[in-house]
Write a structure and sequence with these properties.
This is Anaphase-promoting complex subunit 10. Belongs to the APC10 family. One of its GO terms (cellular component) is anaphase-promoting complex. It comes from Triticum aestivum (Wheat). With 204 residues, the protein is mainly beta. It has one domain: Jelly Rolls (Sandwich). The chain contains two helices and twelve strands. A six-stranded mixed β-sheet has the order 1-8-7-10-5-3, with no helix packed on it. Strands 2-12-6-9 form a four-stranded antiparallel β-sheet. A two-stranded antiparallel ribbon has the order 4-11. Strand 7 and strand 8 form a beta hairpin. The longest helix is centred in the last third of the chain and has 5 residues. The N and C termini lie far apart (38 Å).
């Protein structure tokens, strides 16, 4: 769980967000990748693509689990990362690693998260602004209704709308997508956590 010192969210909303799309505050980033609740990484088998990239700094750098490499765009804004899933999935959290100290004007300052069945019907879910972030930036996909803890989508798009210091191209070092872990016990509406409970939760 992030402390207030690790991830700062101001009360002022992001300007320019689409109608109906919630906006977060100005995010700083966290040194550690930390998750609340029982979530799993959803995008290991997804198809990833980007709108542009420099040679040697392509889409693979977003998924190599190294903070020393990065995707670098090579074109006009917005810079897009598309994640296409094999089936409709439940998505709860987007986490990006960015580093203003290393990347300066290449660091994103405004990001839009969009979701849908494909490129033809993407809808903006959330817009966030970043303030010189260093570390993991956690972007929740939950809505304003507390019952809306996740979204259903075949496709997720992450759009870098602007960079710090009016930079043109962008650097993003890692992206991870999380959703709720599926219940391992069929026909149960609640979740068992420990291996012992799961082992003895059904008749064999």
């Amino acid at each position: 769980m992030e402390s207030d010192g690790e991830q700062e969210a101001a009360a002022t909303p992001t300007l320019g967000a689409s109608a109906g799309a919630p906006s977060a505050g100005r995010l700083k980033g966290c040194p550690e990748l930390s998750l609340e609740g029982d979530m799993r990484e959803m995008a290991k088998t997804a198809v990833w693509s980007v709108s542009s990239s420099k040679p040697g700094n392509g889409v693979a750098s977003l998924r190599d689990d190294s903070l020393d490499t990065y995707w670098q765009s090579d074109g006009a804004q917005p810079h897009l990362v598309n994640i296409q899933f094999q089936k409709k999935v439940q998505l709860q959290l987007v986490v990006l690693y960015v580093d203003f100290k290393l990347d300066e004007s290449y660091t994103p300052s405004k990001i839009s998260i969009r979701a849908g069945d494909g490129l033809h019907n993407l809808k903006e879910i959330k817009t966030v602004e970043l303030s010189k972030p260093v570390g993991w930036v956690h972007i929740s996909l939950s809505g304003t209704d507390p019952r809306e803890t996740f979204i259903h989508a075949f496709m997720l798009q992450i759009a870098v709308l602007a960079n710090h210091l009016n930079g043109r191209d962008t650097h993003v070092r890692q992206i991870k997508i999380y959703g709720p872990r599926l219940n391992p016990v069929p026909h149960q509406h609640f979740h068992f956590i420990s291996r012992e409970c799961i082992m003895y939760s059904s008749v064999r």
